[in-house]
């Protein structure tokens, strides 16, 4: 006997629980189960060969006293913050601009979205070649790049990582803002124009408030993506110079696939998951996003 759908707002009905089973099963198989296995592995010592051996809290105690791990968390937070500060205003303004229906905007938007079609690996290889101090842009414009070895200093390497990340992922957030800006009811702009508001005031008092939930969603995606970025660091800096760009995700790779300490790497992975989850939930909570409900929520 099947359960009848529960009534929703305005006489509409909610789908039954069976509709959620495929997605739930997929999420459990490819997210929850692997995460549980990583949690178990974090309490073991394992070099990838043979059976893991129980190690208790050894891996976690080592992390608490590991200066590289603490530094990697700070670097991850710094790169994430730089990414949010760079990408948010650019993607917001470009998204609102691209929401116009003029033909030239559609063409320029399509060109601008090209970096989004490339993989992070391809983007990293591209910029590593372009920033080569001997044959790339720095060699052609020493007046702008100085000695040209941008990846040889801490500030230069961090700046390059932030710029390359923004170059690739700003188009994604621009697309998100573009779709949201087009969903703003035109009547709001018409009412604002009648009240004498120009474009600048319409942007600040109509567009931005309407994009509030979109800004929260975009920022959460930036934060999670920034905390878990890996391939860009692997190809561009390999954690260098020294450990100046060894972020947590790259340190996890080093521990697991270079030092063959998969137990310690699993502990780092869990720390990343916990940090990303706590930060995301805090952002949603503090922004009031969870209190925003549509009239047809859950239908």
Looking at this structure, what is the CATH superfamily of the domain at 82-245?
A: MetI-like
Contiguous low-pLDDT stretches (5 residues minimum) are 295-299
Mean pLDDT: 87
How many helical elements?
15
**Which band does the percent of strand residues land in?**
under 5%
| Overall radius of gyration | 24 Å
The CATH class of the domain at 82-245 turns out to be: Mainly Alpha
SSE sequence, one letter per element: HEEHHHHHHHHHHHHHH
CATH architecture of the domain at 82-245: Orthogonal Bundle
Using the coordinates shown, work out and report the CATH topology of the domain at 82-245: MetI-like fold
Overall, the morphology is globular
Through-space gap between termini: 22 Å
Total strands = 2
Helix content bin: 55-70%
| Sheet having the most strands | 2 strands, antiparallel
Reading side by side through the largest sheet, how are the strands ordered?
1-2
Tell me the structural class: mainly alpha
Membrane topology: Multi-pass membrane protein
Protein name: Xylobiose ABC transporter membrane protein
Keywords: Cell membrane, Membrane, Transmembrane, Transmembrane helix, Transport
Pfam families: BPD_transp_1 (PF00528)
């Amino acid at each position: 006997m099947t359960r009848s759908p529960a009534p929703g707002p305005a006489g509409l009905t909610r789908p039954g629980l069976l509709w959620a089973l495929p997605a739930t099963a997929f999420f459990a198989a490819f997210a929850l189960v692997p995460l549980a296995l990583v949690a178990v592995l974090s309490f073991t010592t394992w070099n990838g060969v043979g059976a893991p051996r129980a190690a208790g809290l050894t891996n976690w105690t080592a992390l608490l006293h590991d200066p590289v791990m603490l530094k990697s968390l700070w670097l991850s937070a710094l790169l994430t913050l730089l990414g949010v500060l760079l990408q948010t205003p650019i993607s917001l303004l470009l998204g609102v601009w691209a929401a116009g229906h003029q033909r030239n905007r559609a063409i320029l938007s399509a060109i601008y979205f090209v970096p989004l079609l490339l993989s992070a690996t391809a983007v990293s290889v591209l910029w590593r070649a372009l920033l080569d101090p001997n044959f790339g842009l720095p060699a052609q414009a020493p007046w702008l790049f100085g000695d040209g070895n941008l990846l040889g200093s801490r500030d230069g390497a961090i700046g390059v990582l932030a710029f390359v990340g923004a170059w690739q992922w700003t188009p994604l957030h621009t697309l998100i803002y573009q779709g949201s800006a087009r969903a703003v009811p035109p009547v709001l702009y018409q009412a604002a124009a009648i009240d004498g508001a120009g474009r600048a005031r319409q942007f600040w008092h109509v567009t931005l408030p309407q994009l509030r939930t979109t800004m929260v969603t975009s920022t959460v995606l930036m934060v999670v993506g920034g905390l878990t970025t890996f391939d860009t660091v692997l190809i561009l800096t390999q954690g260098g110079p020294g450990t100046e760009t060894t972020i947590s995700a790259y340190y996890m790779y080093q521990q697991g696939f270079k030092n063959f300490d998969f137990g310690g790497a699993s502990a780092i992975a869990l720390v990343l998951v916990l940090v990303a989850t706590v930060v995301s939930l805090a952002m949603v909570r503090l922004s009031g996003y969870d209190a925003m409900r549509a009239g047809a929520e859950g239908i």
